[in-house]
Amino acid sequence: MRTLLLGGTLLLAHALAACGGTGSTTTHPGPDAATGCTGAAPQCADNCNASGTEAPTCTDGHWECPPVPGCVREMADAGHDASSGDASTTLASLDSPCGSITPNQLIALVQSSYAATYTPGTTATGYTSKNPTTASALTVGAAYTNGALTCTPGACPCDPPGPCGSCNAPPTLSVGLAVTFKTADGVFNEQFTAAARASSGEARVEWQGTVLAPDIKGTFVPTYDPNEQVIFEGQFQGTSTTGIVDEVVPNKISAGGGQW
Fold this sequence. Notes:
Strand content: 35-45%
Number of domains: 2
Helix content: under 10%
Largest sheet: 8 strands, antiparallel, barrel
């Protein structure tokens, strides 16, 4: 069970460690942000062409490196923050490569049905679960039904912020799968879309899907809020599946609801 509370702010338990986010540009105040960028301009660099640099533009009183799709953009001055461009791209077909893996190859790693055992978790202090506390047989199904196909280039960790140099992190392929999640005791009887992810050379497929508590089809009763998010996070590997169920109330609590 994982419970994260901090001054009313939700802490994400599965944050990605990388240089900045996506769809943003690197910015840094100039010596005089009120009147404009003065002094020597830093250089822009990216992990797609480590040897290439270019001068940033002065925008609204700060230096700015324009984003490059699929690349991590940085100021070539370690005092500036790093970020990435608009990295994710939509693939045209099931045979379109993302690095050295295609959607069809990811789908081939996923079976149509898995058997496991779902074990309810313990609740956060001060809360009482209204769901069964005993383990139950679980069946997880997965199928591709024309879901989204996206490719996100790998990002270079960079600490402290500054040029990372060349980056060999493989890209991540994401395929939208139709997933069913059913327990024998009827607590869960769900069907939802999950983003299934894998990188080149991996035999494991990680996936995540979210269902709002009012949309739950089984007998599951939300523990923390009637409108909480129920997040299913799992992985498929060979003939087995493992994972966790989180109950999340944004800006309040994230607690493990169970595991399989």
